[in-house]
């Protein structure tokens, strides 16, 4: 059974750093990603990484501040978030998909950035 479990969210101040993790079990995936959803807004893409870790993509809003990485041995994906802003406040969701399958989702972890 495929399972994605996020951890590491919390309450920080603007300018602080935070790292969220996503532990995947059941299988490995072709693509791993982070999405986020702020109150009253639609879920949006944040960052993605290939299975090998050699290809990464970022939303313009986080480029230069966030870094996605993956530990293949642990089948764990990380999102390092630096220079956090209040507008980064959201529930952060881990997602993963194979080459022919849709997204599998985690339950989400809350990140709150106070001004």
Walk me through this protein's architecture.
It contains no helices and 11 strands. The chain has 115 residues and is mainly β. The strands form 2 sheets. Strands 2, 4, 5, 6, 9, 10 and 11 form a 7-stranded mixed sheet that branches. The chain has a 4-stranded antiparallel sheet with strand order 1-3-8-7, with no helix packed on it. The N and C termini lie far apart (40 Å). The mean pLDDT is 95.
Summarize this structure as a short list of keywords or feature phrases.
115 residues, mainly beta, seven-stranded mixed β-sheet, four-stranded antiparallel β-sheet
> Average pLDDT across residues?
95
Percent strand equals over 45%
Query: Looking at the structure, what is the overall shape?
Result: globular
- The value of Rg in angstroms is 13 Å
What's the order of the H and E elements?
A: EEEEEEEEEEE
Query: What distance separates the N and C termini?
Result: 40 Å
> How is the biggest beta sheet arranged?
7 strands, mixed
DSSP strand count = 11
Unreliable stretches covering 5 or more consecutive residues: none
Work out the helicity level: under 10%
Question: Helix/strand-derived class?
Answer: mainly beta
Number of helices: 0
Record the SSE blueprint.
Layout: E1 3-7, E2 10-13, E3 18-25, E4 31-37, E5 44-50, E6 56-58, E7 66-71, E8 76-81, E9 90-97, E10 104-105, E11 109-114
Parallel strand pairs: 2-11
Antiparallel strand pairs: 1-3, 3-8, 4-5, 4-9, 5-6, 7-8, 9-10, 9-11
Summarize the structure.
By secondary structure, this protein is mostly beta strands.
């Amino acid at each position: 059974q495929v399972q994605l479990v996020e951890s590491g969210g919390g309450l920080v101040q603007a300018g602080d750093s935070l790292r969220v993790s996503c532990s995947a079990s059941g299988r490995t995936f072709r693509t791993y990603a982070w999405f986020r959803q702020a109150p009253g807004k639609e879920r949006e893409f944040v960052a993605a990484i290939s299975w090998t870790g050699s290809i990464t993509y970022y939303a313009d809003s986080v480029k230069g501040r966030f870094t996605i990485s993956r530990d293949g041995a642990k089948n764990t994906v990380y999102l390092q978030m630096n220079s956090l802003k209040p507008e980064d406040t959201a529930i952060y969701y881990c997602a993963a998909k194979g080459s022919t399958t849709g997204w599998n989702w985690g339950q989400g972890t809350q990140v709150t950035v106070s001004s």
